[in-house]
Design a protein that fits this description.
The chain is of the alpha+beta class. It contains 9 helices and 21 strands. The strands form 5 sheets. A 6-stranded antiparallel beta sheet has the order 4-3-2-6-7-8. It has a 5-stranded mixed beta barrel with strand order 9-16-17-18-21. A 5-stranded mixed beta sheet has the order 12-11-10-15-20, with helices on one face. A hairpin with a 2-residue loop joins strand 11 and strand 12. The relative contact order is 0.14.
Amino acid sequence: MARTGTKPPSEIAGSVVDAAAMLVERALQAGADAAEAIVFEGQSLGVSWRLGKLEDVERSEGRDVGLRVFIGSRQAVVSTTDLSERSLGPLVERVVAMARVAPEDPYAGLADPDLLASSWPDLEIDDPSSAPTAEALAASAAEAEEAALAVKGVTNSGGAGAQWGRSGMALVTSGGFSGAYSGTSFSVSCSVLAGEGTRMERDYDYSSARHLADLDAPARIGRSAGERAVRRLDPRKVRSQAVPIVYDPRVSAGLVGHFAGAISGAAITRKTSFLQHAMGKPVFAPGIEIVDDPHRKRGLRSKPFDGEGVRNRAMKLIENGTLTTWLLDTASARQLGLRSTGHAARGAGGPPSPSTTNLYMAPGKLSPEALIADIQQGLYVTELIGMGVNGVTGDYSRGASGFWIENGKIGFPVSEITVAGNLKEMFLHMTPANDLVFRYATNAPTIRVEGMTVAGM
């Protein structure tokens, strides 16, 4: 890809730190007991391409600023995109006035000083090269679509796209923390249709990476999208039955995401999680490990410290099937009588809340083929529809499509079915394959789950 000029990472980080420090100082001068400011600055460029033509080019630059102040145990948050002197004075006065009348919150406050990060590693999340040109992005999108349309059976295009972005983030607190980092992102995607008339099927593929060198080739993405669409032609229905279900890596990560939501400090403090009483107990099958690693080199959600400036590190959330920790920010940790685990995340417009970074289930020992080999009748899921998960009970029901498994082999496509179970039982009856690949923010290998129900005809 050809490149254009853009602000270097050091300049982005430096500018946002200065802005955040200035806001904290002004909040203290206005009467706040404590304050923290977070600033996001970003640039992005993206193109859309369909049927051999450029559809649009989108370029954006922006800055979002959040200021949180504390007066005693009261807190308030304001956000703005305007850092002009005309805006800043009233903004600071307004948030301090809001804090004075806010309800008391005994758990509100800055992170504990002894938990703050003082140094951090280079996570290689910022590609130092200049930004690609719109022409280069268009060429990548065109290459992806051309490869997809070349697949026999593909009859139309839903479009292809290519994007680039660079963002910087800075956090400064009156408790002594000051830090910043910047990162880049590259992506390419393609969606196509196969078949004719009422027999048409759609599918897609995409790739995202921090560095351009790590991005999948556009032609590979397009070819994969086309092949996936063609494989879905002429789907059948199946009768309702209880069978093993195997989740493709494209959807298996969702199961790990449901687990992460259930151990969020916010859910635990509100007593709205089906894992409320599971700490230290077997939650998954023996041998399963789930890890959250904010320091993964070039990870899509890597960050050197959390949204409150707290030290973060790789943590085993599940070790040998057993739950080892909640995901905690400062407020939820204090409410539970614990300490932050470094999982605070935030935007400019509100206080922090717990979230994961690079979350994944460790691979198992069996290949996907071996995982399926003894299944006489079963379902291989490649797409899930809807959000039918009850976070309080663990009940799980999702629309699905994929392929029917017969005699240990993946066979004909199926659609218009529902898969159902309960996450507590599903977690205990999971077997992961050995094909883990880091492609998304949350990743998992192929996963087999016993004892679920397929609702079809």
